[in-house]
Design goal:
Helix content: 40-55%
Shape: elongated
Largest sheet: 3 strands, antiparallel
Number of strands: 7
Strand content: 5-15%
Number of domains: 2
Structural class: mainly alpha
Distance between the termini: 54 Å
């Protein structure tokens, strides 16, 4: 935790980033974000809630009168904005995935989904892409079956946690397997056509991935789908790299 001392009377204690949050603080943050109308409002509310601060009013000179326990103090809007700037990391996704360890007593999968099967990954990826296209909250509920072992009707706070979890997983996987999965900072590039043609439907793309891993041998399909997704994605990345190298050599 880091301190920002921008008031003569109060030391604001703030997490330095997503990785600095405890489980309780993570739940508080998502609950705050779900209720806020903007990221700036979320930062301000989170700042107050994590420090146990109440707003009592505003002075004629514009300074806010705040209370933290038995302590009363004033802070200017400029000072408040400077403190909130320490929470700018809220505006982005976690570099390494974070999630609620349990929802409704159901234990979550590993943050990086290392214990998720390739079949469940295909389902999760399909649901995530569907949610990004439609913003249909029921797709986030559907993700809970693969992520927590049972489909649940999630609260908005829980849905927000699932969305941020999957978004950070997608970014992590793109960095880890950049030949097959398009990194977020390389939007102009597409995956190799034989494995992930951008104009393919999701169903066609997944069938293509399965064919690539089974080498056309349908008897291997069930075994491929049951593989840990990390192993399957690493193999697809290797195949994509080999294809790029072959294609580059052929063109030259």
């Amino acid at each position: 935790m880091k301190k920002d001392i921008l008031s003569r009377y109060f030391d604001f204690r703030l997490p330095a980033g997503w990785e600095d949050l405890s489980e309780k603080q993570l739940r508080l943050l998502y609950r705050t974000m779900a209720a806020a109308t903007s990221r700036d409002e979320a930062k301000l509310l989170f700042l107050f809630r994590i420090n146990g601060i109440r707003t009592l009013g505003r002075q004629p000179d514009g300074r806010y009168l705040l209370q933290a326990g038995r302590l009363f103090f004033e802070i200017s809007p400029l000072q408040l904005a400077e403190v909130c700037a320490s929470l700018d990391w809220i505006e982005g996704f976690p570099e390494y995935p974070v999630r609620f360890s349990r929802i409704a007593l159901r234990r979550a999968k590993a943050p990086d989904l290392e214990d998720v099967s390739f079949e469940d990954w295909l389902i999760l990826d399909n649901l995530y892409q569907g949610y990004m296209a439609t913003r249909d909250d029921s797709m986030l509920d559907d993700m809970s079956e693969a992520l927590y072992g049972r489909r649940m009707r999630l609260t908005q706070t829980q849905r927000l946690s699932v969305f941020f979890w999957m978004a950070s997983v997608k970014a992590l996987f793109a960095r880890r397997w950049p030949n097959f999965l398009r990194p977020a900072d390389r939007p102009e590039q597409s995956g190799p056509e034989p494995l992930a043609a951008p104009r393919q439907s999701a169903q066609d793309a997944y069938l293509t991935q399965i064919r690539a891993l089974t080498k056309g041998d349908l008897t291997k399909r069930d075994r491929i789908l049951s593989l840990p997704c990390h192993i399957a994605l690493a193999e697809l990345d290797a195949l994509a790299r080999e294809y790029e190298e072959f294609n580059s050599k052929h063109k030259s």
